[in-house]
Amino acid sequence: MKIKFILLTALLAAAVASCGEKTKEKENTTPDVPTIKNGLKIAYYIQDSLKSQFDYYREQDSVTKVKQTKFQKELERRQRSLQEYILKNDERAKSGQLSNYEIQSIQQEAQRREQELYQYQQTQGTKIEEETVEILDVLTKRIEAAGKKYCEKHNIDLLLIHGAGGQINFINSSMDVTKEFIAYLNEHQAEIETDLGKDKK
Known about the structure:
Elements: H1 2-20, E1 42-46, H2 47-53, H3 55-94, H4 100-154, E2 158-162, H5 178-187, H6 189-200
Parallel strand pairs: 1-2
Helix pairs in contact: 2-3, 3-4, 4-6
């Protein structure tokens, strides 16, 4: 009787666990775009939604932010180091612990470190900025290419990008394919990543 109870408990636990493991449902990528006069189909997607919902965009944005944060922390560390060096020797000079020759040498060293800090800020800052622009530029081109395929697949004649500060003041929400288009991008992420690799060469 005890063995039967244990087996029954184990089976019940397994059943509950299997119910808890819901397989991720495939999102709908097919838009419901109204056809206007002369059979024309116009749709749009909200640009800002790509940043928060397109997985690959978020991954690339995260990588860029990590680099920027690392650069900022190193820059602040070097700035603190320089300030500490200047303050420490300034106190020594005021208390008469340094000769004129030593003060002159310290001033030269401080200038050298300041120049080195400026050089690091310019070089690394520019490098990260250029890398970010390149990543976004290539990614934008791949999204445009994916948009063309998406339009061809669903017979959309015109796909607009709607965003803050853009030229579109109002557009009917029935033409909004943001959710479906992003689902399409996420579904074809591997293909987009492969194309990005080709573009970077």
